[in-house]
């Protein structure tokens, strides 16, 4: 089987490889992907550093053309790349194709942004002096991405990094190297100069740690666990390095008495269980007021019965497998913790057998939960959600905000008063009204508050805040 190699200084390299296993069918090896060493990582950083002076001064049309080519090819290959994504991560094929389209749109957006680079010319308070304010590339950027969005998250980090003239060392999650390799291959063939984009697949303890230890990375943009994010932050202080961290959530979906029940159930089901609940924006806390509580639980239970858990590529599958055995064990452990804490298992919680061996788990719904239970405080990152009963809107808002996280927050209501108040007072970076908490546009900022995020926002024009530095220049007329 062909080994998909790392890209370092414009050359494909690497003989040591690991198997990429399909979670829908653990007998299938998706491919063999290189596992980089510390030396490989250092070489990649050196290559990016050497390439930075020329790329940082490259023309905006050159950057535009390369990013546009990448976006066009991703879109043209959306079915192929979507199938690859579904095979390596377990997301259903429609979701995987949708994510691939989003990656294409991200590259298209930043291809346009490359042509919209601008500064300011302002008058000085002193006579005969002009002031120019411009943005310049940050430098060599380390990019570390998670496994749950294996093509969209790399896209929304790599595209702006290149758009604004930075060079990149990219480490994808070990579980999902396929989509990352494909993106790098597409960009490499689109005409990127050698060393501008370097791919080093491998273990976080080796590749990731070498990146953290390097004084030559001007910035690291990271999406992943809270624990690893804190390590990125601590290690970066020593090097005076700019950091951008996205670290998860325990997102609430509030259901008020006046909500349209069908809208509420669909928003909650999508938020909590689609993509197997493996989204940092997933709603695992369903906060429901007393007047609608019983009807909501009954309707939600019926909706869960209608969801088909099966092979990600199979037509009619609503929920694919959990990504791997380790995550499946985490999910099962939390289901047992919920039982021990006194929550009622209203639906699911059982392993499922299908035609192919895989990590299949029923969507799991707890009721009679409290906001102080571990299943309501800690991020599970699986198809597990808890219903928390509250008296009214005021208590619902208080419970929604009572969390160490603050990424996304949702409400189902027909009240303009409550919707408006919730948008203003929800302690989250993103708020959804009568919509799932998961699912955001590619051209607007993404990010949270509290323990969910640190640093400037991702995506849209706000990406410039991280990937550039501001320069102020004065000229005597």
UniProtKB/TrEMBL annotation:
Q: Where is the Aldehyde dehydrogenase domain?
A: 16-472
**What are the catalytic residues?**
246
Q: What keywords were assigned to this record?
A: Metal-binding, NADP, Oxidation, Oxidoreductase, Potassium
State the superkingdom: Bacteria
Q: Which GO terms describe its molecular function?
A: metal ion binding; oxidoreductase activity, acting on the aldehyde or oxo group of donors, NAD or NADP as acceptor
Q: Which family does it belong to?
A: Belongs to the aldehyde dehydrogenase family.
Xref: PANTHER family? ALDEHYDE DEHYDROGENASE-RELATED
Q: What is this protein called?
A: Aldehyde dehydrogenase (NAD+)
């Amino acid at each position: 089987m062909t080994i998909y190699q790392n890209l370092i200084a414009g050359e494909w390299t690497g003989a040591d490889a690991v198997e990429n296993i399909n979670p829908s069918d653990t007998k299938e090896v998706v491919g063999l992907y290189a596992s980089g060493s510390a030396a490989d990582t250092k070489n990649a950083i050196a290559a990016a550093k050497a390439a930075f002076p020329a790329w940082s001064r490259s023309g905006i049309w050159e950057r535009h053309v390369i990013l546009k080519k990448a976006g066009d090819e991703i879109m043209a290959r959306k079915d192929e790349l979507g199938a690859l994504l579904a095979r390596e991560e377990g997301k259903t094929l429609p979701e995987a194709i949708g994510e691939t389209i989003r990656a294409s749109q991200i590259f298209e957006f930043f291809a346009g942004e490359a042509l919209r680079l601008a500064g300011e010319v302002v008058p000085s308070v002193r006579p005969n002096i002009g002031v120019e304010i411009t943005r310049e590339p940050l430098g060599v950027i380390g990019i570390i991405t998670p496994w749950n969005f294996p093509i969209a998250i790399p896209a929304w980090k790599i595209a702006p990094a290149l758009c604004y003239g930075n060079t990149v060392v990219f480490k994808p999650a070990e579980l999902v190297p396929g989509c990352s390799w494909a993106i790098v291959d597409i960009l490499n063939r689109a005409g990127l100069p050698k060393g501008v984009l370097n791919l080093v697949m491998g273990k976080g303890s080796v590749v990731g740690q070498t990146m953290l230890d390097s004084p030559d990375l001007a910035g690291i943009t990271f999406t992943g666990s809270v624990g690893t994010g804190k390590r990125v932050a601590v290690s970066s202080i020593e090097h005076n390095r700019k950091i951008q961290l996205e670290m998860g959530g325990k997102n609430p979906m509030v259901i008020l008495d006046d909500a349209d029940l069908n809208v509420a159930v669909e928003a909650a089901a999508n938020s909590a269980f689609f993509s197997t609940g493996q989204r940092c924006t997933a709603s695992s806390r369903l906060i429901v007021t007393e007047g609608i509580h019983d009807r909501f639980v009954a309707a939600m239970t019926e909706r869960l019965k209608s969801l088909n858990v099966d092979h990600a590529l199979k037509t009619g599958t609503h929920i694919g497998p959990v990504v791997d055995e380790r995550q499946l064990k985490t999910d099962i452990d939390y289901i047992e913790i919920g039982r021990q804490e006194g929550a009622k298992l209203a639906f699911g919680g059982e392993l499922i057998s299908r035609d192919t061996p895989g990590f299949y788990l029923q969507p799991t719904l707890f009721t009679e939960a409290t906001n102080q239970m571990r299943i309501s405080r800690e991020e599970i990152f699986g198809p597990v959600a808890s219903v928390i009963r509250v008296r009214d809107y005021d208590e619902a808002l208080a419970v929604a905000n009572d969390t160490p996280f603050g990424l996304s927050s949702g409400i189902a209501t027909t009240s303009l008063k409550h919707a408006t108040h919730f948008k203003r007072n929800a302690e989250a970076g993103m708020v959804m009204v009568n919509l799932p908490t998961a699912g955001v546009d590619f051209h607007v900022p993404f990010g949270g508050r509290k323990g969910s995020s640190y640093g400037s926002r991702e995506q849209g024009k706000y990406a410039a805040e991280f990937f550039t530095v501001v320069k102020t220049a004065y000229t005597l007329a």
